[in-house]
Amino acid sequence: MGHAMKHITGGEAVVQALRNEGVEVVFGLPGVQIMSIYDAFHGEPGIRVITVRHEQTAGYMADGYARATGKPGVALVAPGPGVQNAGAALGTAYASSSPVLLLTGQVKRSEIGTDCGALHELNDQLDIIGPVTTWRRRVMGFTEIPFAIHEAMARMRSGRPRPTEVEIPFDVLDMRGNTVSLSPAQPLQRPPDGESVRRASELLLSARKPFIWAGGGVNIANASSELTDLAQALGAPVATTAEGKGAIPENHPLALGASYYGHGASSWAAPRADVILAVGTRMTDQMAGPGAPRKSQKLIHLDADPSVLGKHHPADIGIPCDARIGLQALLEDVRHKSAKEARSHPPWPKDELDDIRARRERWLAAKARDQMEMIRSMERVLDEDAVVVAGLTNVAYWSFLGYRVTRPRSFMTSSYYATLGYAFPLSLGAKVGAPRRPVIALTGDGGFMYGLPELATAVQHGIAVVVVVFVDNAFGASKDDQRTRYRGRVVGTELHNPNFAEVARVFGAEGVRVEPENLGHALENAVEAGKPALIEIPTPTWTPPFQIEPPRS
User: What is the pLDDT of residues 329-347, one digit of tens each?
Assistant: First the structure.
C-alpha cells in the first residue's frame, strides 16, 4: 500500500500526498487556515504554486488545466468566503465533467458547527459544496490526510470525472505526526455489457442511415480516434455538441460540425437518420429543435454516467461505459460483422453530406455574416493545435457552430452552467497545462470584467494567453433579449467600460484595440509575441444563435 514517512506537519502531509498523486501545479489564494500548506510548499521543487487574485480563478484555472492535460487540477482556498468564491468555478467544472480537486481549510475541529463566529466560519460547508462535487470529505485526524486526497483523485480518474473536495481543519494542519506514502490512484473502467454491444452493432449495421451524436465525453475519454474509425466503418456522419468539438476532425468527410440549440448541420441531417448513436453526451435541451431524436428513430446511448442514459430521450439500447472502451468494443464488433457482408453503397452519399454542409454555410452567412468573417480570420492565422476558450459572448456562441476544430481538447465551453466570466481565467489554466500551444480566450466586455485583475496573474507567472475582448458596452445577449422579447425596453444591461487595451498595458501585458476586420492580423502578432496579450474589438450588440428560430429540416 505504501510506506511510513518521517515526523511531519499536516501541511507537509498534504503536499506529500499531492506529490505522490503526480500533482505538478496548484492554483491557490492564501488564507490563515491553510498557511501550513503554503509553508510546506516552500522549497518543494516538484509542485509549482500559482497565486491568483480571486478564488473563483483558482477553480477556473484548475479546470482549464484539467481540460488541457486530462489530469486532475488542484485549487487551494481558505474556508468560508474562499470556498463560496470558488463555488461558481466548481459548478462550471461539474457541468463540464472536469476533474478539479478543491482543497480547502476549515476552522478548528472544536469550532465546527458551533456557530461561534470563528474567523472564516461557514456552517455546513460540506453541504454548501455538495451540489457542485461528486464526492467530498472533512478530514478530522492527521492520519486521514493521504487517504482522503488519494480517494478524491481515485474518484476523478474513474467513471465520469467531476469535482471533489477535501477540507482540513486548522488544528489538523498544524499537527505533527507520521503519515503514509500511497501510490497514485489508478483508473478503474468497467467493460461494456457484451450483449448490449452486439445488439447495438447489429442495429447500426442494419440501419438505412446511421447517424452519430458525439459529446464532450468523447474528448474526456480520449476516444477521438475510436469515434472516427467507427464513423468510417459505418459510413455514418457525426455531429457534435459544443463540448464535443474536435472529437472528430471537423474537416473529415463525415464530420458535420457542432450543433447548438437546434442550429447546425444536424438540423438537416439528423431527421433523415433511422438509427442514432449518442456517445458521451447527456442529450440536454442544447440538442432541442430539428436535430433532436424522434420517436420513429432508434436511439443507442453510450455514456460513462448510467444516470443520463435515456434521461432526456428514451434509449432503445443503453450502454453505461467509458466512451473509449465502449467505442472500441462497438468498432471491433462492427468490423467483425461487416467483414462477412460489405455494404454495396454508402448509406450517406458524399453529395448529400456536401449539400448539408453547404446549407449550413449559407445559413451562417445569412444570420451572422460579420461574426463569421472574424471566425474565418481566426482560422486562417491559428494552427490546428491552438486552444480556443469560448466565453459567453456573441462571436464565441457563433464559433460553436462556425469555428472548425480538428483536434480534441482544443475548444472549451462552460457547458450548461453558462458561467459569465469564466473564459479568461480558465484559459490561463489551459495555457499552464499546455504551454506550447497557443491559447485564445474569446470574451465579452461584461464577462471579462469578472476576471480582469487576473491580467496581473498572467504577467506575474508568464502565462502567454491571448484574450480577445469584444466590446459592445452591454451584457449583449440580455440586451438583445430586451430588444426582441421585451419590446426594446432596455434597462440594466448597458455598461461603462475602460479602454481595455490601455488597462492591459498598465498591468504589463500587451494591449491593442483594432477594428473587426483586423482581428486576424492582431491575433497573429499576439500569438507570435509569446506574452500575455489583450485584443480589444468594438462591435455592435448582435443576436446570439439561441435567440434565432432554427432552420426547418
Answer: 999 999 998 876 666 678 9
CA 18 to each of CA 22, 76, 145, 176, 203: distance values in angstroms, whole numbers, following the listed order: 7, 12, 10, 18, 46
- Supply the range of the domain harboring residue 247: 194-353
Of how many residues is the chain composed? Answer: 553
Total count of domains within the chain: 3
Residue 449 DSSP one-character state: H
The CATH number given to whatever domain includes residue 126 is: 3.40.50.970
Residues 170 and 108: beta-carbon distance below 8 Å: yes
Residue 292 phi, psi dihedral angles, 5° rounding = -70, 145
Q: What is the pLDDT of residues 128-149, one digit of tens each?
A: 999 999 999 999 999 999 999 9
On whether both 348 and 446 belong to a single domain, the answer is: no
Q: Are 211 and 356 in contact (CB under 8 A)?
A: no
CA atoms of 9 and 340, how far apart (whole Å):
65
Alpha-carbon distance of 165 to 133, in angstroms, equals: 7
Residues 6+ apart with CB under 8 A from 242: 258, 260, 286, 390, 400, 411, 413, 415
Task: Provide the whole-model pTM.
Answer: 0.96
